[in-house]
Amino acid sequence: MLDLCLLGTGGMMPLPHRWLTSLMTRYNGSSLMIDCGEGTQIAVKEKGWSFKPIDIICFTHYHADHISGLPGILLTMGNAQRTEPLTVIGPKGLERVVSALRTIAPELPFSIEYLEMSEQEHIFDIKGYKITAFRVNHNIVCYGYSIEILRSGRFDVEKATSLQLPKNYWNRLQKGSAVEHEGKCYTPDMVMGKARRGIKLSYCTDSRPTPSIVAHAAGSDLFICEGMYAEKEKEEKAKQYKHMTFYEAATMARDAKVGELWLTHFSPSLLGGERYMGQVRKIFPKAYLGKDGKSVELDFADEAESRV
Ligand SMILES: [Zn+2]
Ligand SMILES: [Zn+2]
Fold it and tell me: Which of 34, 77, 253, 291 keeps 20 to 30 A from 71, CA to CA?
């Protein structure tokens, strides 16, 4: 089960009831965060989640509304007695940007590992999360992310029995290791069924729509995407500043055949977003307005239905 919370839904500046766009997920005791602008740590507190298990922080890009909250979060993680290393992922320049912010948070009880990106796509496997970062189209280098929890096939008792392999080896095969017994090698594929459908979440802000976003979001259970503007007359502004409208996000969600779309990164001028949703749902019916603190537990398909 992947537990996630959209901590904030604002773009550009935090507002009293709209923190800056950020996402936090929890899986198997490990937390991951994407972006942390000013005030994000207050949103984490409001949600009641803990800072200590944050193992990974991913950055989409280095505009202040996506990263300026980092020094405070690092200090709070330090105050929570974290000592395990933290992995940070972001576009090229990551270490320089984070080190500059660290001049006001120099002493931390944990180390930071940097994963800097410069290719069109990067894939990382950390703490059970498969993280795919992909370039998007903003006015500076920016990446979107897909977070997947993969799931192996079922252990096939009949197959294992027919191999006449003692039962005490089964567990190791099931966990993905090969074993040797009486001079023969046994590999997991000999006893495991086909890989089962896992959990997939995609996150994209700030960008114009691109075919690559659609390809990477394809088949996601949940697609969280910016909708900076809802008013039709702001389409030109979206193009000029390399952002997206509600309708563009919905079109991508439809094309990517995602389970659900949550809109986020709203312009500070956007009020009463709900009145535009009728139009948005004509393009993609399962589109919802993101709200600060909006959460869901995404389960493996055959375990339970997703709950919003
Ligand atoms: Zn932004
Ligand atoms: Zn930006």
Answer: 291
Chain segment 112-145, per-residue pLDDT in tens: 999 999 999 999 999 999 999 999 999 999 999 9
What distance, in Å, lies between the first and last C-alpha atoms of the chain? 13
Furthest-apart CA atoms within the chain: distance in Å: 74
Catalytic residue among 35, 55, 65, 206: 65
CA of 17 to the centre of ligand 1 (A): 17
Closest C-alpha to 22, from 31, 276, 103: 31
Q: In angstroms, rounded to a whole number, what is the distance separating the alpha carbons of residues 51 and 161?
A: 46
- What 8-state DSSP symbol labels residue 19? P
Query: For 16-59, what is each residue's pLDDT tens digit?
Result: 999 999 999 999 999 999 999 999 999 999 999 999 999 999 99
**How much distance in Å is there from the Cα of 150 to the middle of ligand 2?**
30
How far is ligand 1, taken at its centre, from the CA of residue 96, in Å? 20
Q: Which ligand is nearest to the CA of 241?
A: 2
Distance CA 196, CA 267 (A): 39
| CB-based contact 116:108 (threshold 8 Å) | no
Indicate if 206 belongs to the active site: no
Q: Is the pTM of this model over 0.90?
A: yes
